[in-house]
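User: I've been trying to design a sequence by hand for this structure and keep getting stuck. Would you show me what you'd pick, starting by listing the structure so we're on the same page?

Assistant: Good idea, let's start from the same input. This is the structure you sent:
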């Protein structure tokens, strides 16, 4: 949303002439439309809220203010508020985690093609199996 505001102010592009003003208006409209369509700011706010709540549960567990079963119940309630995961982004994160822990000694668990990597934050891709393990 910051880009929409920054690009929308004519004082920013005023000295560069009418052509730049016209194109900055078009770019501002496109960025605003994309932000409205995909709701990046709303997703970021939800993510921050969920992260904060998960850490509150972890802190309560660490200080022994709640029992593990109570913490698990609270985490399940929070999980119900989460949006569906972007499967390609999850698969890439799983590969990164595996590589960070095991290095090159173990094969990566997921295979994500180039095109799906480019669209990993735009489409859920729930119907795609990224696992390198063959199903029997």
């Amino acid at each position: 949303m910051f880009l929409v505001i920054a690009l929308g102010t004519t004082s920013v592009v005023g000295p560069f002439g009418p052509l730049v003003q016209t194109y900055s208006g078009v770019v501002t409209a496109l960025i605003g439309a994309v932000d409205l369509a995909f709701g990046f700011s709303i997703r970021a706010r939800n993510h921050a809220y969920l992260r904060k709540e998960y850490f509150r549960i972890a802190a309560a567990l660490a200080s022994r203010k709640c029992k593990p079963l109570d913490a698990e119940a609270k985490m399940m309630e929070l999980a119900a508020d989460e949006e569906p995961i972007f499967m390609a982004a999850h698969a890439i994160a799983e590969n990164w985690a595996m590589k960070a822990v095991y290095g090159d000694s173990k094969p990566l668990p997921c295979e994500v093609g180039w095109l799906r990597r480019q669209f990993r934050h735009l489409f859920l891709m729930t119907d795609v199996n990224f696992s390198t393990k063959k199903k029997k």
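That's my pick for every position. To get oriented when you compare it with your attempt: The mean pLDDT is 85. The two ends are 47 Å apart (CA to CA).
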